[in-house]
Amino acid sequence: MMKTKHETTKSLSYFPSSSSTLSIINLLCCLTFLTLPTSTLSTILHSNETDRIALLDFKHRISHDPREVLLNSWNDSVHHCRWQGVSCGRRHQRVVALRLPEKGLVGTISPHIGNLTFRRDFNLSGNGLYGQVPSEIGKLLRLRSLNLFANALTGELAGVNLSSCVRLEQIVISRNGLHGRLPVRLSSLKKLRSLRLGRNHFTGGIPPSFGNLSSLQFLGLDENHLGGSVPNEISELWGLNILLLDANNLTGTLSSSLFNITSVRVISITDNSL
Ligand SMILES: *[C@@H]1O[C@H](CO)[C@@H](O)[C@H](O)[C@H]1NC(C)=O
Ligand SMILES: *[C@@H]1O[C@H](CO)[C@@H](O)[C@H](O)[C@H]1NC(C)=O
Ligand SMILES: *[C@@H]1O[C@H](CO)[C@@H](O)[C@H](O)[C@H]1NC(C)=O
Ligand SMILES: *[C@@H]1O[C@H](CO)[C@@H](O)[C@H](O)[C@H]1NC(C)=O
Ligand SMILES: *[C@@H]1O[C@H](CO)[C@@H](O)[C@H](O)[C@H]1NC(C)=O
């Protein structure tokens, strides 16, 4: 943080410091920023120090750490790239993965995780994390895998805008306490292979837009309270392997074209009124 500020001051001091010149510089900066691709922009704004701050904030929001994973290994005498569960890129030393599955961690998920802009893999499955899924996850443009399976997360997922995370291949948030409608703006996730949101309290039906998730192989929405019918659009998912819709108060009839998808291995629809 300090370093970044220092550098900024230094580069500005090369220019005469009249306010008009400064505002022109500001304008130029803004224009340059506007024309830069978003990935370059985040490289400029976020340094490796930001990663460390984000990880420390993540640690501070964990109130119970029975195996002392964070308490013991996340300390100042070790670089954060060597903290347990943290992986960094070889070249740029930025955090690319946070993997702490089944560590008994209790606490909330820090919004700072949205600053770990190089992150591809996020695995916190099988802990006791509660509170909301932070909307800041939508800032992780490189994210490929989001796994929050089996925690105690509540709140809505509909407000988390993942439409910029176009590299996402899997979203696993099953076995939590999420409610509200299923997220509808996932159509831009053309690489999404696995969407598992089963065993929550989602309502409001299955969005027809799920039919646009052209790479989807696994759709798990079982044990929610979705209601409504299964939209015909689901049978447009030509790569679908597994479809889990059990126990959802679903009504109507299942489109016969669903059974014509050659890749389908499992369709599970028990405990509905289909
Ligand atoms: C961040 O990067 C700078 C420049 O490469 C380096 O001097 C500094 O030690 C790094 N800090 C951390 C915490 O990795
Ligand atoms: C810091 O963490 C390392 C493992 O990452 C551990 O070996 C060391 O004992 C820890 N030091 C302190 C002071 O807790
Ligand atoms: C995440 O952790 C769980 C539990 O250890 C594991 O089954 C899963 O394969 C891991 N990786 C991903 C990418 O979800
Ligand atoms: C990181 O994220 C948090 C919360 O989203 C924000 O308040 C903070 O200013 C961000 N930036 C840095 C450099 O830590
Ligand atoms: C979601 O994010 C995309 C891309 O950043 C943006 O175009 C869209 O307006 C956002 N949607 C909402 C509802 O915020």
Describe the protein in words.
The protein has 274 residues and is of the alpha/beta class. It is built from 5 helices and 15 strands. The protein has a 9-stranded mixed β-sheet with strand order 2-3-5-7-9-11-13-14-15, with no helix packed on it. β2 (86-88) and β3 form a beta hairpin. It binds 2-acetamido-2-deoxy-beta-D-glucopyranose (5 copies). Residues 161, 163-164 line the site of one 2-acetamido-2-deoxy-beta-D-glucopyranose.
Give me the secondary-structure topology.
Blueprint: H1 2-12, H2 19-35, H3 38-45, H4 48-60, E1 62-64, H5 69-73, E2 86-88, E3 95-99, E4 106-108, E5 121-123, E6 128-131, E7 145-147, E8 152-153, E9 170-172, E10 179-181, E11 194-196, E12 201-203, E13 218-220, E14 242-244, E15 266-268
Parallel strand pairs: 3-5, 4-6, 5-7, 6-8, 7-9, 9-11, 10-12, 11-13, 13-14, 14-15
Antiparallel strand pairs: 1-4, 2-3
The chain binds 2-acetamido-2-deoxy-beta-D-glucopyranose (NAG) (5 copies).
One 2-acetamido-2-deoxy-beta-D-glucopyranose binds next to loops.
